[in-house]
Amino acid sequence: MTAGQWQPYQERFPGPGHTAVGDLRVYSDLHSPQLGSRRDLVVCLPPSYRHTSLAYPVIYMMDGQNLFDEATAHAGEWQVDETMARLAAEGVEAIIVAVANGGDRRTDEYSPFSIPGEGGGQAQQLAQFVSEIVVPLVERDFRVHSGRQSRFLFGSSLGALFSLYLLHERPDQFGGAGLMSPSLWPAGYAIF
After folding, report:
1. Most Cβ neighbours (<10 Å): which of 4, 29, 128, 130?
2. pTM to 2 decimals?
3. Full domain range(s) for residue 44
4. Which of 89, 83, 107 is nearest to 48 (CA)?
5. Strand 119-120 and strand 114-115: pairing?
6. Within a domain: residue 34?
């Protein structure tokens, strides 16, 4: 697999033990000059994507390795793929973009504030990566509605803190954010 191409999830992660379902595509080793690192992106396409010419809203979700697959998740997968399939059956469809966290650098990347003894303070670089590289890549390669009214963020814990931060920093680019169990405490609740 060459970096810079989308491939089916099952080809990128073959073998037993994977629980991802549906039409998932992986962009391997996407380079972030802002962060000086590489990471995979996973896109979950709605069931109707192959059979229509419709464009879809997009939800950019943090901690991407937790969304679809027990084999890659930390403390259990979120079953976003199964949930989106159920919602599609009810007529609600969106493209999910799973942005993997930086592993040991998760706190550094997700917190806009320095946290004594834990890191933090690199959220601006991650915000630039998502806004300037990830969003244009997705909008180039998939049928999506462009514009802030069709772009949303979602995160849990520090991923929720980052989602709120990115929404605040780029209100012209994102229309809303879902926050699950948000860690808003860093730097004495400075996000407010």
Report:
1. 130
2. 0.93
3. 17-186
4. 89
5. antiparallel
6. yes
